[in-house]
Write a structure and sequence with these properties.
By secondary structure, the chain is an alpha+beta fold. It has helices at 8-17, 24-36, 38-82, 88-109, 115-127, 181-196, 198-209, and strands at residues 128-131, 135-140, 143-149, 153-159, 163-168, 176-180. Helix 3 crosses helix 6 (181-196) and helix 5 runs antiparallel to helix 6. It starts with 7 loop residues before the first helix and ends with a helix. Mean pLDDT is 87; it is low at 201-210. The chain crosses the membrane at residues 62-85, 91-109, 130-155, 175-193.
Amino acid sequence: MDYSKYSINELLDCLNNIDKDAHPENYEKLILELEKRKPELEAFQKQEQEEFTFSTENRVKLLSWLQIATCVGFTIAFVNVLFGSRELIDLIVYGFIAVFNGLAGYKLLKRSRYGYELSYLNQILQILTINTGTLFFTYTGLGSFLIGIEGELFFRANILSTDFRFYTGENLGQFGFGVDLVAIFFLSVLHSCRELGLDTKANKAFKADS
């Protein structure tokens, strides 16, 4: 096997798929070719890492602004209740969620201390919508894409629609639950940041200043 005409991407693909026990000679040639082209390999891996980091950072910025926009959405809901029904429990809930989203979004955008932790918690709370018949809970930010079961499999999407409901009682409807794929996506983005060490930069800066 002549690997000299293979691209770096093709060489790495071969490395991931070759059976070194079944093809020891080809494996040795592959390793030698990678060693020979080590500077090119390191440049390729560095570029891929930079592209991944750039993509992840942009997604984090998107999540930051979505949380800030969600803060605005719940602030509007708070004002509507304030000048409408004036229900104290709604005012407390909408006010708290507005402040929580605004704080999480701002701190994440600025890479401030606890920005990642608050955003993690915010997305975890949005993952599950559930109705047991005696308990109903749902919480969405600026938008969601739910997949779940409510008698039958359903897909449900909404955008520009903040929502929080928590009820207990009898006969609240048919049993069902849904999982928000948008929340899961952003949790994976935050996890990627943690793997890249982007979440520790703010903490290190905070410790240096204190």
